[in-house]
Write a structure and sequence with these properties.
Order of helices and strands: EEHHHEHHHHHHHHEEHHEEEEEHH
Largest sheet: 2 strands, antiparallel
Oligomer: single chain
Strand order of the largest sheet: 1-2
Shape: globular
Number of helices: 15
Amino acid sequence: MKFQRLLWIILPLALFFNNCADVLDMAPDGNMQMDEVLSDPNKVEALLNSCYNNIPQKGFTYWFYENLPIAASDDAYTSYEAADDPITGIYSDANSASSHHMRDAYDGHGGGNNDYWIRSWQQIRLCTQFIELIDESAVNRETDRGRFKAEARVLRAFFYMELIKWFGKVPILEATVPFDADFSTMTRSSVYDVAKFIASDCDAALTEPNLPWRIDHQDDAMRVTKALALALKTKAMLFAASPLHNEGEDHWEEAYTTAKDAVAKLKANGYELFTKTTQPAVYGTGPGAALRQLVSQNADYSATPRDKETIFQIRSGGLFVWHIGYIGSNMPNTYKCGASPTQELVDAFETIDGQPILNLEKPYLDEKHLQPNYNASNTLYDPNNPYANRDPRFDETVLHNGSTIVFDSKTVEIETFIGGAHAPNFDITDKSFSRAGYYPTKMVTPGASGNNQINSSNWKYYRLGETLLDLAEAAAEAGHLNDARAAANEVR
């Protein structure tokens, strides 16, 4: 069998063209032929490990510890727009199709949170190469061969899904492409076709008996599973059906059946929503306590895990840091407020009866969103007491006027009214105060402060709750309203 020569960064083991000139008697330089790699089970495992490279860490690993995608959305606004950083470029509309402060190379980003095009294609090539070679490779146990191949397929699906999120239509490369190929002849496939390719990789992985449903040991943290394959299938088909990508075709029924099948299989294999806190002394006993614990603590790895909801979490990094993305406001030992919730995010939380507070057909009466258009059917919302009777997730996500926190072992009441201790400050050079009058709390462990320095969980890419919401969306769009309501109510 002929193997392509390639640069293997992770070991590092670079393949080389051997110059056999008799006049040169070169000492070994650590370079190795691919057949030497594939004949050693440990090096084969290292080759698989390289397929796990470049998974973005998300969270606070962007430039200057900014939760950049959130700050760039309608949900939040940075507390430090005076800085010469990517978010400033986004706010000032200094991006283009060829250069984007969040998507492309930027030296200040950490955790693989940039150059998504290059990084994803690097990983897809590594995964494809591994899939092509593993059948002829040495392994420590024959059961490893099937699992390794399935892992590479799921990882290839993962990186194709990342490409869809950032770029939409992309080429489908089912085999490794020579380095000297004419890439200008390649064409982009529709998002639907890419989604079907993702689904085919995931389906192949799901048939592998040695690929587990759940990781049950810390040593295997972040290895992919059948559960991730189902979550990826669901997400890919949802994107393909969306108006942004469907190219005038109706794929909602297929997205619905994919999501419904995924949720059923996840539940049948031990996944369930995290609905009751295991630490009431820390998180309280309110209806939102379980959500706060779920998102602020790492998933645990055991045969009987506390967290049976999380499907895929990065191994390290992406931490939400208590003194950077929390209260700020010149509280002791804090550095900056970070990306703070906007009024638009606050307005998105329903009342406890499931009714939106705004008229969804026209939520605001003006372009700047200063005049809310209230939902006349909502009898529980009172504009003069706006935080009462709200979905329990609201208070676990947003600190607002009247919220209380424990900071340095003291109870602190949040004061966002004009003149209050935590009032918004519109000086763009002051990074300690919210611009919108709200502060983030969702990812912060209650009680985190200078004398209780607790950082929160690594980034969780996929959870059962998210797949249920994917099902709710697809079911609603496909006309299965009872299923949509049931899936949404489960998460509520």
